[in-house]
Design goal:
The protein is an alpha/beta fold. The protein has one domain: Ribonuclease H-like superfamily/Ribonuclease H (Nucleotidyltransferase, domain 5, 2-Layer Sandwich). Helix content is 45%, strand content 22%. The chain has six helices and six strands, in the order βββαβαβαααβα.
Amino acid sequence: MNTEKIILGIDPGTTIMGFGLIKVVRKKMELLLLNELQLSKYDDHYVRLKYIFERTVQLIDSHHPDEIAIEAPFFGKNVQSMLKLGRAQGVAMAAGLSRQIPITEYSPKKIKMAITGNGNASKEQVAKMLQSLLDLKTLPKNLDSTDGLAAAVCHFYNSGKISTGKNYTGWSVFVKQNEGRIEK
């Protein structure tokens, strides 16, 4: 049995994509990386998507995660924002699927619940709990990176449990689980 694995957590966004990597050794977490991809300097939405894909592939190729946990888009009132966020998530997922890495989606509420015990916790509460759990010296200015890290930690806590997240291990599985979303 492999007692070591690396989990990449991603908080997709078209302005900032937050991400965190943890290494799990014998059920103990260790922080590998906490960062963000700044996308606001690019005016073209498609260029932003390209950078999300490229950065995700770069993270995969340099850190070799065994699994990816990604925050699912929340349902908001602004349809355009939802569409852009869904595209950002899809591009990050495509990067993982292109490298055959299993992906699990978690709702923001499930991530917050796993980290703080409160599904309605604020970004700040989640960040403070992660700071305590992983012994972070300081917190980043933008909390998008801690949101990405939170997805990875949530996945660690849910490993071995029956997941309520959606799992994708490749394109064929994704297509099979999303037949209603695919035009023929």
